[in-house]
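Practice set, problem 2.
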Amino acid sequence: MMNKIQTISSSQPSFGGVIPPGGLTRHRVVAAWHALAPVLVFVSMLLIVGILNPNYLKPLGISIVTASAAPILFVALGQAMVLNIGSIDLSNAAISMVGAILVALWLPGMGVMGIVAVLAVTVAIGILNGLLVAVTQVPSFALTLGTLGLLQTAALVTSDSQTIYISENRELIAALYSTSLLFAPLTFWIGVFVALVYWGLLSLTRLGLGMTAIGKNERAATLSAVPTLPIKVITYAISGLSGGLAGLAIVAQAGSASASGLGSNLLLPGIAAALVGGTSISGGQTNPINVVFGALTVAFVPIAIQAMGFGAEAQSLVYGLFIITVVALTTSRVRGAVIK
């Protein structure tokens, strides 16, 4: 079965079963571009900002950007894993919000076990999403949109629409933000570590090859005896875990949680970071390491806009145009493919 999965995962585009003249070369060029584009876009942004206002690249600026990028990175990594199987998870940012509120509620009384319990809950939510998508065959866009609404309501009810401040055991999680390495908080470096783990999972394991095979061609993967149902459930569980880690990063930075506070608007940045990181919107291609650069790029956009001299009233417009342009440059697309 491993050989069959590898064949599906590494298949080349063809016409009538035959690769047209020059097609293989063009495919390699396109593949190389999508592998390097996220890094090149981020480096280009750094150069522009460094020229316009070098102060943004000093230790304080680096700390601010990486701190902002940390929760975006976790959400984007979970989203990238789900996009890789040809689906989408519109609820993973809401999972992070629920996770943050539960951390603020459980950490004072339960300590470290409260953190473990929160991650278990977010993984369970992801498993439920995966089961519903795989068993009911409801399109993931519609199903997780419904889950998003339920989780937003759960966040409001659980927090009583109030900001929950951590009064006890805060040091257990605050250290994740206050501890720095190369001017970046530990939450960001944990995100980088998670990206490396996800990369290893996708590149070196049968499970990861199965995920990519499903994203490239689910019917062919099924015919090749790839266990699509458990793989989908595991993928959504990974998205739930990533959302829980984003919740930890939010609380570590803010020392509190609420349904409308820090991290309440992570959905669009998370999707944008996954796409800017080179993840294919149609499935079958992602590189979690590049998603790190996607998250940094998305977190850096507001600073870049300010450095270029745009006023506050124009920043949303410029931000939207920038994201559209970068996604168009960095995302791999397959003609005729759709998100399932």
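Problem 2, part (b): a different protein.
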Amino acid sequence: MIEFIKATTTEQCKTTALLANNIWREHYTKIIGKAQVDFMLEKFQSANAIKQQIAEGYMYYIITVEATAIGYISIKKEDKNLFLSKFYVIKPERGKGFGKTAMTFLETKAKALNCNSISLTVNKNNGNAINAYEKLGFNNVGTIVIDIGKGFVMDDYKMCKELT
């Protein structure tokens, strides 16, 4: 059974950071390189960074299947939009329908927060994720390049899904 457990404790932040370390090193090193992965994990996905983001209004959810953590989501309400900041699942669990289940969870959460859309950013070279988001009803609405420091940028597409 899949569950979405809201991360609020230090231990849950550490669990999320461990998931991030595993997923990012496996998936993103070939897309953005080891140096940028190392930088982004420390800046955005360490337990301390996650705690800080929660204090700034982000909500983190650990995705579990039969009590085993398989991924995580981070969201933030921005006016009438729910920003999906992070959505990651460990490699052995991809392609099993968890993304579709998570999207139902996110849509329910968005509606409860009085949002009429969900948006996200995705690396332009992350073809599998782009295809998955398109299958889930997201549309590419443009490009966005963000300087994140130390000479690194996030070179992404912005995608949006309107809710009915």
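Answer key, part (b): The chain has one domain: 2-91+98-162. Strands lie at 2-6, 59-65, 68-78, 81-89, 117-123, 139-149, 152-162.
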